[in-house]
Amino acid sequence: MSLVFVQFRCAPGRTYEVADAIWDREVVSELYSTSGDYDLIAKVYIPDGEEVGHYLSSRLFDIPGIQRTLTTMTFRAF
């Protein structure tokens, strides 16, 4: 299993709606609101054998109200 963090920029006024939709899909292990350029950040474990881009695109990125995403790959824990 690999771990990625995904940040979401939402359309104005739609952050709570997007957050509810993300959480309802049961794909993320943690979800937080953030300050800065993005509105939300999610911790997502990618199952072994899954391609990261395809996994995220097919499970999260089609949610209405998402304007932009930024995915950060992780490599090892210290």
UniProtKB/TrEMBL annotation:
InterPro entries: Dimeric_a/b-barrel (IPR011008), Tscrpt_reg_AsnC/Lrp_C (IPR019887). It comes from the Bacteria. SUPFAM superfamilies: Dimeric alpha+beta barrel. Residues 6-76 form the Transcription regulator AsnC/Lrp ligand binding domain. Pfam families: AsnC_trans_reg. Gene3D superfamilies: 3.30.70.920. This is AsnC family protein. The lineage of its organism: Bacteria, Pseudomonadati, Pseudomonadota, Alphaproteobacteria, Rhodobacterales.
